[in-house]
Structure formats: structure tokens, C-alpha cells
Amino acid sequence: MTQPLLHPPKASPGDRIAVLSPSFAAPGAFPAVHEQAMQRLTELTGLVPVEYPTTRQLDAPPEARAADVNAAFADPGIRGVLGTIGGEDEIRVIPHLDAELVRADPKPFLGYSDNWNLHNWLWTNGVASFYGGSSQVQLGPGPHVDPIHAASLRAALITGESLEILDPGESEDVGVPWDDPRALTTFGEREVTEPWTWSGPPRPVTGRSWGGCIEVIEWVLTAGRFPAAPDVLAGGVLLLETSEELLPAQNVGWIVRSLGERGLVGAVDAVLVARPPVSDFRTRPDAVERARLRAEQAAVVIEMINSYNDQAVVCVGVPFGHTRPQWVLPHGGEITVDGAQRRVFADYS
Questions:
Q1: Which residues pair with 209 in a beta bridge?
Q2: Rounded to whole angstroms, how far apart are CA atoms 33 and 167?
Q3: Which residues contact residue 217 at a Cβ distance below 8 angstroms, ignoring those fewer than 6 apart?
Q4: Are 279 and 330 contacting, i.e. CB atoms less than 8 angstroms apart?
Q5: Phi, psi at 135, each rounded to 5°
Q6: H helix runs in the chain, sequence order
Q7: Cα angle at 112 between 290 and 348, to 5 degrees?
Q8: Of 284, 287, 274, which is closest to residue 322 (Cα–Cα)?
Q9: What integer pLDDT is reported at residue 222 of this predicted model?
């Protein structure tokens, strides 16, 4: 990958971390989950969370949300930035951001889903980040923070170590509703995960990563916010995952096809595809149907990737994005996808 990137320095225990809502201000609607998340964030990292005017402000205008992002990156005392959750309106925040601020003092940014708008903007402006993390989903709910999430959160913010990305053996699509007191002490309905699906040549690939939620990638590309030629991703690792909107496999395939036509699939050497959510609070197919839906999406995505790049090493089912337990993954950092050993490693430096 030829895009020059700054890799932000790590924070140290006792430093401050900005907790922002660039999209949906879930902490304003569900404060109990947010408060537990803030306590756990400090316990896990030693960092001191700092909220901004729109962190809990529902329906804040994009200019105000952008002002908080700019303020966090401008403050030399802030050594990390965490998005509280995604949403669907961050695309209107991006035009109001100041690239000079982030280049002058780059800091680790963590978030996923709609926060990929900010990840891509940082990448475009030469700053690496970390795809994953959400105080409202991964930190606040449940009896504890999942070990794989805690390990990758600390690696992204504090330690900068390399980790093997392993399957935790269980997964949930959704947790307990946040307005239910049990959300603070109980996980959602979890099930045993399936083995990851591999495709492509049995070779190891190490490259810098780019990508995230495919629905948001589609928005960003439509808005013209990937100005580079596709070969800027040459040799890289493409990250693809789907949201709680539960897109049919056919629609997911159409988006991957568009990425292929754009030249992005052909440019990379490996693709990581996340375990997709296939149920929500309204729709809960039985276990057989859930497995079928996941297998259907995997087959469509692999077929489409192979049609544009049959030399790409592909791994489907990795727990990142819209699933829990969730790995935080480097965005712009190195990931190794080893098709021979069928293992995945991430460098959080």
C-alpha cells in the first residue's frame, strides 16, 4: 500500500482520552450503559475519559459534532479518541473537520460502523487508526468486557503489541436492550461460532489494511471521498463487514461487485470478511436459518472477490465489526493473513 501514513504514538495510563459521538449520541439516550462503559474504560486502560458538548447531545448538528472532533485533536492533553457508537449521519460531519489538526498531533482513533467515515478521512489525510471499539456496545453492556476486545483495545491505545486474531468460540448479534436494567449485567443470546472459511492461494500475505462497514464504504465512495487511484491499496488487506441493517446476501454481493469495478478488490492481496449479524430485536431466525444466512453471504462474497482477484487470500468469519465479542483491528496498520497456516495476526504499533 503506497499511501503514506502517520502512526499515532500510544497513550500512557493517566492520560486523557476523548469520548465522542460523531454520529448518534447514544449516551444521551441510555446513560446507565455509558456510565458503566466509562468506568470500565479506565479500569482496562488507566486512561481518563473526557466528554465533549455533543457526547450526550441527541440530534446535535454536524457542525457541532465536528467541532468536538476538532477540539479533541487540537488538545495536546488528549492522547486518544473513542467513538461512543456509530449511527448513520457522520457523513455530514466530515466536511467540517480540520486535517491540519490531526496531522500536527495524531492520536489513536477507535470506532466502527458509521465511524468509518472518520477512519477513511484520517487515512486520506495520512493518519492510521483502529477499526472497532464502542463504549456503548463493547464496553458498557454485559457482566464484563470480552477478553479479545479488552486485549485489542489495550493494544491499540496503550501497548502497540502484535496479537493473533483468534475466534472466541461464541458470538451474539445483539445484546439486551439498553433501556432494560439487565443490559448492565447480562450478555445477549450467544451461540457457538462456525469455523472461518478460507479461499484463494495457500500463501501468507502481510499488508496494510483499509476498509470497514460496506454500507458506509458505499456512501463514502458515492460522495467521492476516495480520491486516490485504486493502486494506492496495492498489496494491502481489505476489511469488509456488514451492519445490523441485515442486508440480503445478494445486496452485499452487489456492493462487493461495485468495489471490484472500482478496482479496489483487484488491488489488494488479501481480504478479511467479518462474521455478519443475521438477526436483530425484531427478526430472530432459528439456528439453522441463521447458519444458512451466514453461509450464503460468505459464498456470495467469496465468489465476487474471486471473479475480480483470484489470487487474493480470503478469510470469512473473523469477529470484527458488528459482532460481539469483537476484535479491534488496525486501519492502515499491518495485518497478516496466512492462507497456508490459516491464521491471522495484527500489528497494533
A1: 237
A2: 26
A3: 116, 120, 211, 240, 255, 259
A4: no
A5: -65, -35
A6: 26-29, 31-45, 62-74, 99-104, 116-124, 147-154, 214-222, 249-261, 264-267, 287-308
A7: 110
A8: 274
A9: 96
According to DSSP, residue 183 is labeled G
Rounded CA-CA distance 284/289 in Å is: 9
Residues 6+ apart with CB under 8 A from 52: 18, 19, 20, 68, 71, 72
Mean pLDDT in each 10-residue stretch from start to end of the chain (349 residues)? Answer: 92 98 98 98 98 98 98 98 98 98 98 98 98 98 98 98 98 97 97 98 98 98 92 97 97 98 98 98 95 98 98 98 98 98 98
pLDDT at 2: 80
Would you state the pLDDT for residue 289? 97
Q: How far apart are CA 348 and CA 154, in angstroms?
A: 9
97 and 70 Cβ atoms separated by less than 8 Å: yes
- pLDDT 10s digits, 301-325: 999 999 999 999 999 999 999 999 9
Listed as own residue / partner, the contacts of 32-35 with beta carbons closer than 8 Å and 24 or more positions apart are: 32/178, 32/181, 32/183, 32/184, 33/136, 33/140, 33/141, 33/178, 33/183, 33/184, 34/84, 34/135, 34/136, 34/140, 35/140
> Residues 4, 126: contact at Cβ < 8 Å?
yes
Per DSSP, the three-state class of 172 is: strand
Q: Which residues pair with 238 in a beta bridge?
A: 210, 271
> Is 93 buried (19+), middle (13-18) or exposed (0-12) by CB count in 10 A?
buried
The reported pLDDT for the residue numbered 3 is: 87
**What angle is formed at CA 283 by the lines to CA 282 and CA 286, rounded to 5 degrees?**
140
Cell of 295: 453461509
Please spell the DSSP secondary structure of 34-57, one letter per residue: HHHHHHHHHHHH--EEEE-TTSS-
**Assigned C-alpha cell, 186:** 447480562
